[in-house]
Amino acid sequence: MDPESGPSTAAESRNASWVLRLLLGAHTVGDVGDVLDAPPAPSGVLAGLEWDPLLELVRANGVLVRTADRLETLGIAVPDRFAEAVADERVRVRSTLELMSHVGRTCEARGIPYLFPKAFQDYPDFGDDVDLLVLRRSTRVDTAIVAGLPTVPVARDLGERFAGTATYRIRGCSSPLDVQHGRLGIVGEHDEFPRVLVQHARPIVVDGIAFAEPPPEDQLVLQGLQRVPGRLRIALSDVVFTISTLRRPTLDWDYVIVTARRYGALPGLGCYLGYVDQIHRDVFARPLLSDTVARALTLEGWGRIAFRDGGYRFPIVRANGRLYWGQLRHRIASGDWGGAGRLFLIPLVAGARAGRRLTGGTPPPAPRGAGPRRAAVGEGRTIHRSPRAPMNTDRILVLDGRTIEALACVRSLGRAGYWVAVGGKRRWPLASWSRYCHASYHYPEETLDGFASLRRWAQQHNVRVVLPLTEATTQLCNAERGEWEALGITLGCAPDAVLSRAFDKAETLRRAAACGVRIPPTRFPTSLAECREAAEALGYPCVVKPRFTSAWNGHGFLPDLGPTYAKDVAELEAAVRSRRQGEYWPIIQAFVPGKGKGVFTVCDHGRPIAWFAHERLRDVRPSGSGSSLRRSVALDPRLQTRAERLLAQMEWHGPAMVEFRDEGTGAPWLMEVNGRFWGSLQLSVAAGRDFPRIWTEILTGKPPDPPASYREGVILRWLWGDVKRLLYILAGRPAGYPGTYPTVAQGLRELFGRQPPGTKLEVWDPQDPWPAVGEWAEGAREVFIKALRSR
User: Fold this and answer.
1) Between 20 and 30 A from 709 (CA), which of 132, 178, 526, 768?
2) Would you place residue 142 in the very low, low, confident or very high pLDDT band (cuts 50, 70, 90)?
3) First-to-final CA distance of the chain
């Protein structure tokens, strides 16, 4: 609510003005009496002053100790309760200084450039947390910084995640440590000025301890970057520091203005100082800034500021909107696409914070500067949550956390009472946003070395079962299966000999043909010449399909470009060369018509335990892929019989999706077997087929007892999948694709139009809302980066 929308409370405003005069203008008892419109009582305690509201005001605004010191200087006694609060605050400040001293010595010993940029602006008071700025961008440095300290990472909001900050609570110190890694701003949009702060830092001794702080000019520029953007109020401590700084006769205004302009802080500085100037005029009846300085800054047009609800409130929409669009125009005009990309994330952050307030603070709101941190490279994070279901003794690690099937597994197992952790290649994998994720591990590359580190982390966290969800992570786990099992960890995948029956598409098709399951006309060439012969025999257009989704060569994975279509020899040769995986030549198939249909199951050594079926209402990729809109349907006996026959022949163990193309008449065509959990896994769970739980029970030796049936007609929509579908439509029909392709108008109707009755969103869950925010945040970032790379 903007301050113009209602008058500020008179008593609050009067007390705030009194504190400012006390700290910035009162030199005698008479001055204080003038402020209160009442002389001091003979006892030395001010008459007519309500001490409890004053205590609440100065404590919430970071000026408690200075207020007490100033009153003592003027010979004014404070009540016992006020004095006790001051004593407690001095203890907190001292413990905070000791923490900073320890961290500073550690950084110096490890050669880590660092600075506490704002720590001493309020001394002898102190902020709610300790901001530590280090120039290294990676959170790997934190391990060294907090060495020897009893730390616990705490929950973070969306903006802090994007900004790359990491916050720790330290046992024995009530001030959290907030580590900023080479960036400042709501989403880390300011990445140059931090180096200036560190380079210009000068020594200072506080309470007998040596530190460093930026010069006042740099601290003013820093306020231009931070005091208004993303804030809801300005505290008295901010006003006191700023007015005291601006009153210095030696302040180098030329440097301030030039530096603020260079690093994009000038509009924010003008806005903030405009508000402070208003406050100064109201309290002291004179301007704070000279005409020369005022002309160099844009002080007007930001709206009125007034003290209300415990702080100085300003028109947040007007001020932040004007600053945001100005920053965005500046970044784009200067070609700073990286900075502009980060600014595009700010509306997501604002929406997430508003949503957190509307939903009552889920996840629970933390003190200023606190929140869970992202997992660093080769490092895990632990998130302490209280699950609602009784906890199982088994601990599960779900890999490939970026996928929607990983989110389905985490939610399913978390609600079943399992302790669940998430591993992933991204810093903020989708599944780690879930309330049911207790810990996460970031492996930046899918390599054997990376998975050896993952294995050690899993052992340290007493993980019993690991669920790899993609072919790549499954193969990496299986490559050192013995090492996992030697630690008592069960892998949620079949051995390599069984896996190859599904992962090698050629072997799958051969086994299907051998047991009487119909396959499209297919050739398995071993040379380019045989590829040409196969295409001539099958006819153009034909399908060129890599043998493996993830082909492992013993050192890494070969590229997989997915299937494509070739309408002539030239396209065929190009497709074959790009899709050859070492010694493995792609498969050549004839295009077969029909609708994609799948049946799903989990097998226990060739025996299906439960079945499920759905129909695709929309595919993400219109030429064929996973679906964005799907509906649970009754099992088609024609599909189930053939799938069961093939899985028994394969002696399959684990989850499987058997995919067909079916025209509704004649035998269906087998397309492939996905020997892992599938993208539409949440639909089966929502319909009553809880496959993650069934598979985990098999792995942990519990007899699965699934319901005899599931609900038909359940419709789930993967909204981000529909967004991606529209992007595929905008990109145009793939070369050589012979099927029908939707128009842009159709794609827009699908995305924004009415959906089938009863449709629910797949990722959104009011009991677990944060994955929906995380998916859009990461998805928008991914799309923006791809757009920049295509320029």
Assistant:
1) 768
2) confident
3) 41
119 contacts 126 by C-beta, under 8 angstroms: yes
Q: What is the pLDDT of residue 373?
A: 34
Q: What does the pLDDT look like over 152-190, one tens digit per residue?
A: 877 666 677 778 788 888 888 888 999 998 889 888 888
Give the list of residues 6+ apart from residue 608 with CB closer than 8 angstroms, or none.
Answer: 601, 602, 644, 647
Both structure tokens of 97: 């200084």
Q: What is the DSSP string of 117-164?
A: TTTTSSTTS--SSEEEEES--SGGGHHHHTTTS-EEE----HHHHHHT
Place of tokens 């049936």: 709
The pLDDT value given to residue 790: 43
Instruction: Decide if 731 contacts 611 (C-beta within 8 A).
Output: no
Could you count the other beta carbons within 10 Å of the beta carbon of residue 344?
A: 15
What whole-number percentage of the chain has pLDDT above 90? 47
In this structure, how many other beta carbons lie within 10 angstroms of the beta carbon of residue 465? 20
CA 24 remoteness from chain centre:
43
Whole-angstrom distance, CA of residue 190 vs CA of residue 130: 19
Query: From CA 149, how far away is CA 138, in angstroms rounded?
Result: 20
DSSP-assigned letter for residue 375: P
Rounded Cα distance between 349 and 352, Å, is 5
Structure tokens at 209: 């301890």
Mean pLDDT of 148-153: 84
The backbone torsions φ and ψ at residue 558, rounded to the nearest 5 degrees and listed phi first, read: -80, 155
- What is the spatial distance between Cα 511 and Cα 525, in angstroms, rounded to a whole number? 17
In the chain, count H helices and then E strands.
30, 28
Residue range 232-274, pLDDT digits in tens: 889 999 999 999 999 998 999 999 999 999 888 999 999 999 9
Instruction: Identify the DSSP state of 326.
Output: H
DSSP-H helix ranges across 45-115: 51-60, 64-73, 80-109
Q: Which two tokens stand for residue 545?
A: 């399909």
Which residues lie closer than 8 Å to 489 by C-beta, 6 or more apart? Answer: 455, 458, 459, 463, 464, 465, 466
**Residue 342 pLDDT class (50, 70, 90 cuts):** confident
Exposed, middle or buried, 757 (CB in 10 Å: 0-12/13-18/19+)? exposed
Q: Write phi, then psi, for 432 (nearest 5 degrees).
A: -75, -15
Tell me: pLDDT of 670 over 90: yes
Query: Is 465's pLDDT higher than 60?
Result: yes
Compute the average pLDDT of residues 609-630: 88
Report which of 194, 257, 264 is spatially closest to residue 229, judged by C-alpha positions.
Answer: 264
DSSP 8-state class, residue 3 = G
Residue 148 has a pLDDT of: 82
- Whole-model pTM above 0.70? no
For residues 263 and 200, is the Cβ–Cβ distance under 8 A?
no
Mean pLDDT of the chain: 84
Q: Are 776 and 351 in contact (CB under 8 A)?
A: no
**What pLDDT does 25 receive?**
75
Overall average pLDDT of the 366-392 stretch: 42
Candidates 96, 70, 340; CA nearest to 209 is 96
DSSP codes of every residue in 556-579: SEEP----EEESSHHHHHHHHHHH
Cα gap 489→491, rounded to integer Å: 6
| CA 111 – CA 127 distance, rounded (Å) | 27
Residue 35 has pLDDT above 50, yes or no: no
CB-based contacts of 786: which residues, under 8 Å, 6+ apart?
A: none
Instruction: Output the pLDDT for position 392.
Output: 58
pLDDT band with cut points at 50, 70 and 90 for residue 367: very low
In whole angstroms, what is the distance from residue 187 CA to residue 249 CA?
Answer: 35
